[in-house]
C-alpha cells in the first residue's frame, strides 16, 4: 500500500488513502508503521475517507495505536496531502474529524502545491466534565496538581483533544518525559491528556514543549499551541495573536473576541513509498 510522510512543526505523520485502499485495522497500522525501529517512524497516522457531511474525512491514530479526535499539525499535513494529490480540488476544504467539521484555507505556491494552511479550529471547551476530567468546574484555570512531592499550577481545556497547560520560568529545567507521562495518566483525566509546558518570551511569542497523549514527547503540537494561547490570553499574559515557537517550527495562533481559534502554519511533504504488508 502506498504511504506518504509529511511533517508540520516537527510533528511527523504517515498518510494513507482509505478511499482507494481497504484498511482492516487502523490501530494496528499505526502501531506497526509509526515504530521508529521496525516501521517507518512517525508520531501518528492519518487516513482519508469519503465524508457525507464535509469534503473529506480525516481519521487520526497516535503512534501507540490509540485514536485521537483531532490533530492540529496533522490537519495541515492532511490538507496538503488532499490538495497536492487533487483528492479535493479546492483550496478551501471542509474536513470531518471526530471533533467536528474543521474549515481549512490553503495558500498555494507557484507550483500549485499547498504551502501555508489556515485552519478554523472552532471554539475551545472549558467545562471540566467535557474535557473530560474528574472535577466539577466550569473552567479549569490555575488549579493545582501534585506530581511526586511537587505542586504544579495548571489549566485544562479541550481543543479537539484534552490539554493541560503549565506556565514555567524555564522549560529546559522541566523533565517533561517524566512529568508529562505522569500527568497524561493522572486519575483526574479519565481519557488521559496532552501536556504543554510554556515559557513566555513576550505577549506575542511563547516557547512550548509538549508531551502528547498516545505519542509521548513530540517536537510540536498544533492543538497544544492553540490551547496554550487560549489560556495565556485568559490569564492576560498573551495577546490575541501569538507566534508559538515549538521545537520543530513556528505556528501562528489567532483568537477572536469569543475565543474562536485560527491556526496558521506550514506543512512539508517528506517522502512517498510502498508499505510491505505481511
Ligand atoms: N499532534 C497533535 C495532537 C494529536 C492527538 C493527540 N496526541 C491526542 O490523541 O490527544 C496536534 O498537533 O494537535
TrEMBL record:
Catalytic activity, EC: 5.1.1.7
Molecular function in Gene Ontology: diaminopimelate epimerase activity
Entry's transmembrane regions: none
PROSITE patterns: DAP_EPIMERASE
Active site: 71 (proton donor), 71, 221 (proton acceptor)
Keywords tagged on the record: Amino-acid biosynthesis, Cytoplasm, Isomerase, Lysine biosynthesis
Record site feature (Could be important to modulate the pK values of the two catalytic cysteine residues), residues: 163, 212
Pfam families: DAP_epimerase (PF01678)
Binding-site residues, substrate: 11, 62, 72-73, 194, 212-213, 222-223
Reaction catalysed by this enzyme: (2S,6S)-2,6-diaminopimelate = meso-2,6-diaminopimelate
Subcellular location: Cytoplasm
Keyword Isomerase tagged: yes
Major subcellular location class: cytoplasm
Pathway: Amino-acid biosynthesis; L-lysine biosynthesis via DAP pathway; DL-2,6-diaminopimelate from LL-2,6-diaminopimelate: step 1/1
Highest taxon above the source species: Bacteria
Protein family: Belongs to the diaminopimelate epimerase family.
Assembly information from the UniProt record: Homodimer.
NCBIfam families: DapF
Name of the protein this chain belongs to: Diaminopimelate epimerase
Organism: Tissierella simiarum
